[in-house]
Each structure stands twice: as C-alpha cells, then as structure tokens.
Amino acid sequence: MGRDIAALIAALILAAVPATGHAQSGVGDPMAGRQVAQTWCSNCHSVEVSAQTLTTDVVPSFAAIARNPTMPPSVLRAFLQHPHGQMPDLYLSRPEIDDLIAYIRSLPR
Ligand code: HEC
User: Please, which residues have CB within 8 angstroms of residue 66's CB and are 6 or more apart in sequence?
Assistant: First the structure.
C-alpha cells in the first residue's frame, strides 16, 4: 500500500515535469514577431520604433506598449489571446503570441 502511494506520487511528479520541461516555451523569437507584427498589426499600430506616421491617440504604438508598465508579458499574452480593435478574424497561435511579445519586449523602453 505505502509502496503504491509512493509510486503514485512519483507518477504525479513525472506527469508535472513536461509542463516546465519545455525549455523554449514562452520564449519567442523577436525577429519572427516583427514579421507577424508587420503582417497583422501594422495596419493599425505603429510597430517600428522609428515609424511615427500611423500612431494615433486611439491606437498605441508598439513602443508605447513596450513602455507601458501595466502591460507586462502575462497581460499582453492574455490580451492577444482575444481579438481586439474590431479585428474579429485575427486569431494568433501561441508561438505567434510568444514571438510578438518577444518583439515588443525587444523595443527600446
Ligand atoms: C484593426 C486595427 C488593429 C489591429 C490590426 C491591431 N490592433 Fe491592437 N489595438 C487596436 C486598437 C484600436 C487598440 C486600443 C483599443 C483596444 O484596446 O481595443 C489596440 C490596442 C492594443 C494593445 C493594448 C495596448 C494598451 O496599452 O492597452 C495591444 C497590446 C495591441 N493592440 C497589440 C496588437 C497586436 C500585437 C496586433 C497584431 C497581432 C494588433 N494589436 C493589431 C487596433 C488594432
């Protein structure tokens, strides 16, 4: 009996490992994120550090998002999991979201 419980605990621990074992999870590629941003976000957002032309009061630039202390990666991720700004067709995959966050984080603050 005690042995079964020990085995069960061991199994549970092993089952929990893959959740953290994937080393790359949550770590995106900023260059890939830049591509995604230019494709999907640049219609509304200013996605480059230097591009000021598309910035409006309504739509924050990516540089502004990078500087925004209320938009840490966890909040960004939750935000990007849902369409926004009247763009119902935009559904980003997890890797795309990781890449976008990595890109936004790579912008100078
Ligand atoms: C159709 C226009 C449009 C597109 C395309 C668009 N956005 Fe937005 N976005 C907005 C508008 C408008 C707001 C501000 C209002 C809101 O939060 O819905 C916004 C807000 C945001 C915010 C929140 C900023 C803050 O400080 O609250 C983030 C983050 C963001 N967008 C990221 C993205 C990313 C990443 C993409 C590309 C995958 C994208 N957006 C594409 C229009 C757009």
Answer: 104, 105, 107, 108, 109
Q: Which fold has domain 28-106?
A: Cytochrome Bc1 Complex; Chain D, domain 2 (1.10.760)
Q: From atom 18 of ligand 1, which residue's Cα is the shortest distance away?
A: 85
**What is the model's pTM?**
0.77
Q: Which amino acid, 109?
A: R
As given in the structure block, the two tokens for residue 22 are: 């994937």
CA–centroid distance, 105 to ligand 1, in Å, is: 16
Across all residues in the chain, what is the average pLDDT? 80
At 17, the pLDDT band (50, 70, 90 cuts) reads: very low
Q: Domain residue spans in the chain?
A: 28-106
